[in-house]
Amino acid sequence: MSYLCKELLKIRYYMDKIQMVDLKGQYLKIKDEVDREIFEVINSSGFIGGEKVRRFSDNLAKYLDVKHAITCGNGTDALQIALMALGLKPEDEVIVPAFTFIASAEVIALLGLKPVMVDVDYNDFIATAKNIELAITSKTKAIIPVHLFGQGANMEEIIKIAEKYDLYIIEDNAQALGADYIFSDNRRQKLGTIGHIGCTSFFPSKNLGCYGDGGALFTNDDALAEKISMICNHGMKIRYHHEILGVNSRLDAIQAGILDVKLRHLNTYCKSRQDVARAYSHVLKDIDELICPIEREYSTHVYHQYTLKVLNNKRDELREYLDKNGITSMIYYPIPLNRQEAFTGIASMAGDMSVSDKLSSEVLSLPIHTEMNLKTIHYISTKVREFFSK
Ligand SMILES: *Cc1c(COP(=O)(O)O)cnc(C)c1O
């Protein structure tokens, strides 16, 4: 085969490969509305702040049934601003799971606070209330539960602990926007609105993603809301009067316009992801060397990721097999935070992190998004089955 021929085949392979997300397909369905929003902003030249940002914040707060939604530059900023708003001081300890994206813990260390890592539950990848309680010392000031992969941490238990030890709760809800928490009295509340502050990300591949970077903070506390707004905007309420130290972190008007359109579809998007997940689990649940994701009774699951556990050291081999068959899969997360070099000498571990370690060698996330059709789901699950029946 000629060189050119081989290169063309390679390009074809990458073009046809099943990707983790299909943002283009999703865009095409809402193109007219989204394009109108973008061009309105360009025509008005009001790129920063203004009506579109206000409107989106209001609609998001209404959707979540929370008093305040304050937009900012990205999800990592949201977490940092939350810690700043709570007035934590150097040496204060903040509890965070070891099995999460680095942002959850990075901002703690950047502010000179101490990240204290706790291990997670093997079944749902999320830090248990028991591990959190065991990590509490006289210096502990806050807990950051992470609603990983689209499902909630056990908030009812975590609230009990926070009340008992007088701690703040900052929910990292970058992956579970739209999911409901279900209290034992059957009361439902959106994840991200339960702790003192909730944080989310509008990174393009998140469940509510924009076409660039974006994030938001949620709170029902008026004083905290005011402080958060000030911190997002250089610590000022009145222009050029800086009462406290802040940062520059804002959602731009184009992103707000796009997000406002997509927010109207968020429930449908969540439903599509749930349908994909259930279809996968239906086909894969009886494979001995696989464990499918579980759904807790206290939280709905909006499947930011559909994450399998692959037993007997077969994960990497399965991933390669899927890749050869034109299917992308991802490892979230290959190295738990307790093994990240950046935290050496900075973070401490409360107990052993054996579950996080084990998970990072077993997890494999399959493509899941709002545009997946039955044929693709069938193809992927058939290939996974085929691998285990070889
Ligand atoms: C994506 C993500 C973040 C950070 O969001 P960015 O907008 O990328 O800064 C934080 N925590 C978790 C769990 C995430 O998945």
Summarize the model shown:
The longest helix has 22 residues, at 23-44.
Q: What do these coordinates show?
A:
- By secondary structure, the chain is α/β, with parallel strands linked by helices.
- It has 2 domains: 3-23 and 266-388, Aspartate Aminotransferase, domain 1; 28-263, Type I PLP-dependent aspartate aminotransferase-like (Major domain) (Aspartate Aminotransferase, domain 2, 3-Layer(aba) Sandwich).
- The protein is built from 13 helices and 13 strands.
- β2 (93-97), α5 and β3 (114-118) form a beta-alpha-beta unit.
- α3 runs parallel beside α9 (253-263).
- The chain starts with a helix and ends with a helix.
- Bound molecules: pyridoxal-5'-phosphate (PLP).
- Pyridoxal-5'-phosphate (PLP) binds next to α4 and α5.
State the CATH class of the largest domain.
Alpha Beta
Quantity of strands, as a count: 13
CATH superfamily of the largest domain: Type I PLP-dependent aspartate aminotransferase-like (Major domain)
Main beta sheet: 8 strands, mixed
- Separation, N- and C-terminal Cα atoms: 30 Å
Helix content: 40-55%
Enumerate how many helices there are, as a single number. 13
CATH fold annotation of the largest domain: Aspartate Aminotransferase, domain 2
Report the radius of gyration as a whole number of Å. Answer: 22 Å
Mean pLDDT level: 96
